[in-house]
Amino acid sequence: MATASVAFKSREDHRKQMELEEARKAGLAPAEVDEDGKEINPHIPQYMSSAPWYLNAERPSLKHQRKWKSDPNYTKSWYDRGAKIFQADKYRKGACENCGAMTHTGKACMERPRKMGAKWTSKNIAPDEKVETFELDYDGKRDRWNGYDAASYAHVIERYEARDEARRKFLKDQQLKKLEEKNNNQNGDDGASDDEDNEDDLKVDEAKVDESKQMDFAKVEKRVRTTGGGSTGTVRNLRIREDTAKYLLNLDVNSAHYDPKTRSMREDPLPDMDPNEKFYAGDNQNRVSGQALEFKQLNIHAWEAFEKGTDVHMQAAPSQAELLYKNYKVNKEKLKYQVKETIMDKYGNAAAEEALPKELLLGQSEREVEYDRAGRVIKGQEMALPKSKYEEDVYINNHTSVWGSWWKDHQWGYKCCKQFIRNSYCTGSAGIEAAEAAADLMKANIARKEAAEETPAPTEQKQLATWGTDIPDDLVLDQEKLADALKKEDERRREERDERKRKYNVKWNDEVTAEHMEAYRMKKIHHDDPMKDFLH
């Protein structure tokens, strides 16, 4: 089975090599060694990258058969936090206008804004930060501990050591006190004191027990599938025997329900108890804490994603659903960080700035300023208000005040001309007078209109004729002519209904009198009149 790692020149060389290997197996020839002086196992083929586990080989051979050299371009180093590389003596072109460092601009400067920046003073130039770029390999990008300083864990160890030391000191003091009391008490209470001392010693010894010895405390041996069914196995118990059973915490029959088959009690048996003193709060407490809550949120995210059109199913493809949820959380945090950075870039970060000392905030000076009763400065100079890095008091279109300095009728405007239009040109006092005159005129017109509506003018009631004209007051109708006109109107209507009753020799007279109009009105049919059927 052994194979040589070199090619043989002839069949004779191959035969000699086989005999040498047989002699080595029998122990009649010295073993072959490699370049490092170690014995080569003849049972391992030299072309294999790793030896099988059953051959008990010390190491694999032929490193060139696998990629064992890492890429020299990749690194596992991390950023040197807070490191400085160079500090200039004077301002350099392109540096930060505030502190003078070349590694950032004035917009991203994290120092307190100076009264006069380093660009104009060339003093106190801040050192340049160390900016590094790394090309991480596959493992380096996914190493969650990359850049972690193990020395930062020392304070945790020190805290626990200090706690243990204080505990040992306290127990030692307690033992000394007990010994002193025992020596002082020489009366007949020796038996009781000995019992108490024994109990204290047991408590001390129990506190010194290592946690590793208590790991198997809750295990019980249980026979499972022995000759009467199987082998003996170890079953971990659900609770420590010294604990009170959950169904004995509250003996009220109306308290939380206990299911003996599943040994579950979902509700809290003691809801009115102090949470700090409560040992058991029901099985539902496990559903809203730990990984159960994360799994619940993962399911909810999968349902919502499926409703929005994403092809994801928690039971069919759990890895895909978990990956989508992880990407969702990363994108959410990234978006939240971008919004925060945008707001901080636009408005600044007051929390990052150093607080001014009380000597500057509440300080006193020798500057004297005198005011009159109206609040005007008589003597001295009034304190100038500090300006921010944003534009202030910028007046446009000949205005003498800024937009928003005047408020009226739920509208902002300019105080100088009392106009509500932002891009308007300032008209000064003349515009204010014209606006007031226009407002007064409008009020007068509204008042006059309201007064006119309150006292309406009397209207003359006229009797209108049926055909829409006015009837004169001095109109007198002749009854005979009216009767004759009514008779002719009836004949005309009959002729209109029946063309056969119309005569050939028709005498036409187009003269219309008031009696004819009255007869027409009396005989006219009003189609929209609900009483038309009762008129004729």
Automatic annotation (TrEMBL):
<keyword id="KW-0508">mRNA splicing</keyword>
<dbReference type="GO" id="GO:0005681">
    <property type="term" value="C:spliceosomal complex"/>
</dbReference>
<protein>
    <recommendedName>
        <fullName>Pre-mRNA-splicing factor SLU7</fullName>
    </recommendedName>
</protein>
<keyword id="KW-0747">Spliceosome</keyword>
<feature type="compositionally biased region" description="Acidic residues">
    <location>
        <begin position="191"/>
        <end position="203"/>
    </location>
</feature>
<feature type="region of interest" description="Disordered">
    <location>
        <begin position="176"/>
        <end position="209"/>
    </location>
</feature>
<dbReference type="InterPro" id="IPR021715">
    <property type="entry name" value="Slu7_dom"/>
</dbReference>
<comment type="similarity">
    <text>Belongs to the SLU7 family.</text>
</comment>
<dbReference type="InterPro" id="IPR039974">
    <property type="entry name" value="Splicing_factor_SLU7"/>
</dbReference>
<dbReference type="GO" id="GO:0030628">
    <property type="term" value="F:pre-mRNA 3'-splice site binding"/>
</dbReference>
<comment type="subunit">
    <text>Associated with the spliceosome.</text>
</comment>
<feature type="region of interest" description="Disordered">
    <location>
        <begin position="22"/>
        <end position="44"/>
    </location>
</feature>
<keyword id="KW-0507">mRNA processing</keyword>
<comment type="function">
    <text>Involved in pre-mRNA splicing.</text>
</comment>
<feature type="domain" description="Pre-mRNA-splicing factor SLU7">
    <location>
        <begin position="136"/>
        <end position="405"/>
    </location>
</feature>
<keyword id="KW-0539">Nucleus</keyword>
<dbReference type="GO" id="GO:0000398">
    <property type="term" value="P:mRNA splicing, via spliceosome"/>
</dbReference>
<dbReference type="Pfam" id="PF11708">
    <property type="entry name" value="Slu7"/>
</dbReference>
